Amino acid sequence: MKGITPVVATILLLLITIAVVGFAFGYFSTIMTTVGTETQKQAQQTTERLSKAVRIDSAGGTLGTSLYVSNIGTSDINTTNELSVYVAGTLDSTCTGHWQNAVLNPTKLTNCTLAASCVGKMVKVVAPAGPTEYSC
Prior knowledge:
The chain is of the alpha+beta class. Strand 1 and strand 2 form a beta hairpin. The protein is rod-shaped and about 105 Å long. The protein starts with 5 loop residues before the first helix and ends with a strand. The model has no long low-confidence stretch (mean pLDDT about 90).
């Protein structure tokens, strides 16, 4: 019986090696493309969220039920879906979703009427960029 000549054996090993490297390259290229796409999507979502920030300009007023909020970010804020109001840690449902303006443009001010007086309590408005608090 004759064995495989060294030249044929070397050629077969080279072909097997090239095939394995080709499959590995394709596999890792797909993974890296997916990771890059997902990272870019997450970065865009984070940037968009951080561009929707608010500041409480005043809370209380004569009856203790007025709340004025400014958009200090760079994107419009949908006040119905993206702003929540808490007074002393409890969700104020009369203010949440019931702002004077449905869309709060950058640098603009909006207001709502709280369910009860906030005098002596902490008021917190939660926006996409995070919460802000105000001592009423």
